[in-house]
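Human: I hope this is not a bother. Would you mind checking the protein record under this note? Thank you for your patience.
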Amino acid sequence: MPTFSVSRSAFIPAPAAEIYAHVIGFREWLNWSPWEGLDPSMQRSYSGPVQGVGASYTWKGNGKAGAGTMEIVEAVEASKIQLRLEFTKPMKAVNPTSFTFVPEGSGTRVTWTMQGENKGLGRVFALFMNMDKLVGGDFEKGLAQLADVVAANR
């Protein structure tokens, strides 16, 4: 089965714990996620704990925003967050996604990775679109916005 992986990293001049705090709870994503501005009337709901393992976020938006659910399935304090990302629209897919936070010099190297399989309509889509090019820019924008939010809250 053909698979893909999209990964971007950025150096953020702050301790890992400060950055981790903005990723471990989905309500915080409103401040930095690259997809939040795609649909001003996007419907959002949260379930489970406010943050950490079991926290869940569901969204339903226009054609650009799509629809789906994210759930935190693993969290290692200030080190790693593993998500189960499930898209329901425009195409159904489950994409394991992770954030890692590695101390580096006077800050932290944050890496955002999403993996998946090209099957069904996704396989046809992959013939015409490069997932790295499609999603990589969003990851770069999100990491830059995350750095800005962390800096503003220091």
Notes: DSSP finds three helices and seven strands in the chain. The radius of gyration is 15 Å. The chain has one domain: 3-152.
